[in-house]
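Q: Predict the assembly, please.
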Amino acid sequence: MDQYKKSPISRPPTLREIVTDLVFRYTCLAFAWLTIAVMCYIVFEITWKAGPAIQEYGFGFLTSQTWDPNTKEFGILPEIWGTLYSSTLALLIGSLFGVSVAVFLSEGYLGNFVFQVLKLFGVQFHRFWGKMPAAAETALKNLVELLAAIPSVVYGLWGIFVVIPLMRDSCNWLYENMGWFPLFGTRFEGTGMLPASFVLAIMILPTISAISRDALVAVPPKLREASYGLGATRWETILSVILPTASGGIFGGVVLAFGRALGETMALAMLVGNVNTIKVSLFSPANTLAALLANNFQEAGSDEMKVGVLMYAGLVLMAITLGVNVIGALILQRATAGLKGLN
Amino acid sequence: MKNTLFKLGTYVALAAVIVATTGCGSGSGTKLQGAGASFPAPLYTSWFKEFSKSHKGVQIDYQSVGSGTGVSSVIDGTVDFGASDAAMKEDEMAKVERGVQLLPMTAGAIVLAYNLDGVDQLKLSREAYVDIFLGKIEKWNDPKIAATNEGVNLPDLDINVVVRSDSSGTTYVFTQHLSTISKEFAESPGTNKAPNWPVGTKSKGNEGVTTSLAQNPGSIGYVEFGYAMKAKLAMVTLENKSGEFIKPSIASAQAALAGVEMPADLIAWLPDPEGKESYPIVTYTWIIAYKKYESEEKLKVFKELIQYCLTEGQKSSESLGYIPLPETVVEKVSAALDNITVGK
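A: Predicted assembly structure:
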């Protein structure tokens, strides 16, 4: 019995342990609640400040197309359209590239390539070079994720100085030869929807590729083996077994990326042209809610109504983002419901 | 042992960070914080740099955030001085308890810069450039443009108008001029720091517009003369009040300034200057000082700074594309410094 008490494993917790345990637990709880409280406070504050504008403009704010501080006419339909359009476009381009990169990184294509190169020199199993294939994959994965660390302004400048000049000739060729097609219906003047969406696509690519890669890696090996065992080729396995299995995770990444695309500010303010028009054409300048806020907030300062109008626009942006995330979560739930029990 | 060393290292690093962050705040020097117009920003930045060099321990920080923000920062009291090329309105001045003193510091011309392959000389009549900014002229080969440009091969290309996206004094001065010469413009967009433009893509700051113009063939926009000069953009020769076509230059802008008398509050406008040699779009730009400063130290440095700008500074303005103030104006501004005192 005496021996039992002295054992380090079964001794009762000391007072110090109990206290630190409690402190830790309540600190965590407090921070969790604080996060929720801050969130609620932000929503409350924005709604409060938006109050006068909501009363003044009501629902018409969402359907009117003029933004004129002089006559105090405010409407954000073009911005809502621009926000959704640019994000959707960016998502199309971004998920195409993002999922491809994820497949490339998770299915051993790069590793195999490096292995073959090493084999040419006959050093594929050498103790220095043997780990190269795996290292190359990790390096590329980190490199893609590093895209997320580049500041938004740098993306904007890159868009202005590199992307737009690169696009100009081919876009204007499309306009001149296929101008009848609504997507190519206007001349490409520089800033506009396409360069904005393209740069946005690159900005959300790390989110999509990182999450998709994790989802692909998590697909149980037995599925792969079973598929190969049935005689499927590598591509058949990827397309009809692995991708559908990981689709839940990939979709989750896409929804997250969409959220980021909706709220992206600086790069868009620099590239989208900031013009209140609703056009289907990819080449015409447009505007987004976040860019509108970025451009007008600085000097709204002392004017209560102007702040109110901008807060109202911010509220709409929040509602859109929330809506997208809720819909995404619902679809995700339904999509993954059938896959339970696989793991 | 290793652990102790690591801990020690952390403490040293932490201490270094604390010293570094508090060090700049409580340093021996005086710091003046200014913000506002992007129009004179290149000039101010060079002045302030030179001034800091010759005055040890004095740091002057200027942020080129646009006249609108310049004025609102003065009202909010977040800066030591503001800058604006739309001056300040009566009701804005009334909001500042400490009172404000506007000091014209320099003057500049607003030019129409453009980017059009193969066209290095472009003349625009008053009607033509108003119509471009009203969206009524959409093509470069429009007859109204062609009329004043005989022998120039104008392409059949859409005009891409570039305007400012932020609240801007440059815009204010430019729209003031357009409103003066065109009734239609006065009615619809009107004189404003951020008007509702009927056409155009928008870029932020003089810097942004300059970049947009340089990057996009077929575009035209308004920027401060110095910015256009530095970016080597082609500038339009504009028709003035007397019907002459005037090239933007320091001399033609000086000619415009010569005809204006500076009033007692130092706010003078030249919406459409008289004179055969005058360039049509010229403006003074102001530094906004408080009438009362809490710290004697700050006030002393501020007055020294302004004196420096009015004397030594004026000499370097031409090389950066700004117009030196006329002698009479320098005297008036210098005298106005006496209105600024210590107090609450």
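The longest helix of chain B spans residues 2-25. Chain B has a mean pLDDT of 84.
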